[in-house]
Design brief:
With 249 residues, the protein is α+β, with helices and mostly antiparallel strands. It has 12 helices and 6 strands. Belongs to the flavin oxidoreductase frp family.
Length: 249
Amino acid sequence: MNEVTNLLMDHRSVRHFEDKPLTREQIETIVLSAQAASTSSFVQAYSIIGVTDKEKKAKLAEFAGNQSYVAENGHFFVFCADLHRHEVIGQMENKEVIPTIESTEKFMVAIIDAALAAQNAVIAAESMGMGICYIGGIRNNLEGVAELLKTPDRVIPLFGLAVGYPSKKNDKKPRLPLQHIYHENEYKQDEEGFREELEMYNRIISEYYNERTGGRRMDTWTGQIGGMMEKQTRMYMKDFVQGKKMDLK
């Protein structure tokens, strides 16, 4: 264990921020840290939109299910899969790049690049004493988000990132046991053991909620996730992606 691993393992989502905007230097440090992340074949298939306009932040909060911390934070970033610049590259270099841009593989590359960059941004922010919360809720209404942020074709807003100084810190949620996540040499096929690990984790999570809420909540992880997965949400995504000329061929 060292300073970096301690920082990584102390992560928790923050949903209450001080009314204190980030400085320009802090924003640039976070973005430069994001850019230092690995990128597939040096493609750099992502863009980051910083949202400072209060009305736009309020609208994004509305899109995200009226999450107040989308509007009230030190700075709000939106990470986008971006293959628009690669279409421009094709025009600049007189190369036929569209079939590659429209492939499922390059769409996956863009999503992975954006996620890697975002996690670097998170570690940079947390190393400076800030807290963060990822906001997948902006995908509730990507048509509205795209119009609000004026994203062109071949650019897909993926998630937001609220950053700022915590005014309140949530408890750290216990993660799945290491042996349930980590497989060596091949995927474990012990179904009985698999279920036993989940039941053990259910007991840990139920106790976590029980202590956190003073007995008002004792749900299990599989119950929580099963109920969430049963509800079909954001089922428009394929049509939206294809409408943005990422045809996933």
